[in-house]
Amino acid sequence: MVITVAGESxxxxxxxxxxLQELKAFDDSKSGVKGLVDAGITKIPRIFVRPPEDLASHNxxxxxxTDTHFKIPVIDLEGRRADAIDGVRRAAEEVGFFQVxxxxxxxxxxxxxxxxxxxxxxLPREVKAxxxxxxxxxxxxxxxxxxxxxxxFANWRDSLFCVMGPDPLDxxxxxxxxxxITIEYSNQVHKLGITLFEMLSExxxxxxxxxxxxxxxxxxxxxxxxxxxxxxxxxxMGTTQHSDPDFLTILLQDHNGGLQxxxxxxxxxxxxxxxxLVVNIGDLLQLISNDRFxxxxxQVLANHMGPRVSIACFFTPHLYPSTIxxxxxxxxxxxxxxxxxxxxxxxDFVAYYDEKGLDGNSALTHFKLQKGGKxxxxxxxxxx
Length: 384
Prior knowledge:
Layout: E1 2-5, E2 8-11, H1 19-29, H2 32-38, H3 52-57, E3 74-76, H4 81-94, E4 97-101, H5 107-121, H6 125-129, E5 140-143, E6 158-163, H7 179-203, H8 210-213, E7 220-227, E8 239-242, E9 248-253, E10 259-263, E11 266-269, E12 277-281, H9 283-288, E13 298-300, E14 308-315, H10 346-356, H11 378-383
Parallel strand pairs: 3-4
Antiparallel strand pairs: 1-2, 4-12, 5-6, 6-7, 7-14, 8-13, 9-12, 9-14, 10-11, 10-13
């Protein structure tokens, strides 16, 4: 079998398949999944094919049951505040996902952000290649699969990663095609994040500024994802099931759909709602809320149709130095509700998450305590 990676032929068959060589050829092309599509492939390279056991047990692209009755909650932020907070609380506790409407972000800004993200990913290869890097601390970078060399299979997705805070980003670091709108979008989505953290704080029975005081909204990262049309979507995924290594994620998605959340042992579609933004609880908010709020697994399906474009805003200081050590909030604890997690820094949590990669397992397990407050050992994790 001959596989084309961005115009280059890579041989791969059961007898001489060299996975590392193929991964490196793909990475070195600096053209991402879009480059494969532009090369006219009709079969996906083997690095993207899910393992046989995954395909046999779970194929969300063909016949996996989804709940057609349950709908992801939609919360009107212009409604009565007490009702909105109650809706946020129930969604955060039960589903971990909700959509918000009348959120204060202009429709023009949403449309222009999606258009600019698509514009970047459809630039010529040599232009995008200037931003291609796997350097950990680089503030603006283009790539495909942050865990490319760790994952069991690569996802059918390219991303532009932009660290917008806590330190100000020099606008000149952003690609010209999306520079102005990314800054405008960043400012507006940060304001919305502040509003949501205030509501989530009240939903926990805390003062409205308590989560803000814990610097949950101090930093944010904007990821512009691009999912090209896939010739064999049943063999791969747009994004493997995972939860997010942050406090909160606000997602802008186009009309193409494909996002699913795992709820009550089945996958639920998160359909695009015109003008709405998707909000989901992150791992770190589940940790500090001591499991009151849920950071649930979600995934994106690959599709024959495309491209799908989405903009994810992760509220996290990411890898920047911080003196704050996060653990379950003391006011939420009691004799009947002891701490579930050990304390950690954001840097250590993200480092563990990145090293682990998207393997379908929650990073939170690594930070759990046994009953009585003891740390769970690696042996305990293997036996559990």
